[in-house]
């Protein structure tokens, strides 16, 4: 599974990091960092993160 975040859309509010802390987190400066190729077992929580993102910036491929 591949995960991409459109950082031109992302507003760093961190809802994704709450929904899927294994894949998304906020760094020390409050910017989003994420795992681009998470294990397939994390699909449900990544989909949840994509759902809760207020700007629909998270894309899942594969
Ligand atoms: S929920 Fe969306 S806007 Fe917020 S940090 Fe995550 S990707 Fe960015």
Automatic annotation (TrEMBL):
InterPro entries named among the record's database cross-references: 3Fe4S_ferredoxin, Fe-S_cluster_ET
Gene Ontology molecular function, alphabetical: 3 iron, 4 sulfur cluster binding; electron transfer activity; iron ion binding
Essential cofactor(s): [3Fe-4S] cluster
Described function: Ferredoxins are iron-sulfur proteins that transfer electrons in a wide variety of metabolic reactions.
Keyword annotations from UniProtKB, A to Z: 3Fe-4S, Electron transport, Iron, Iron-sulfur, Metal-binding, Transport
UniProt-recorded name of the protein: Ferredoxin
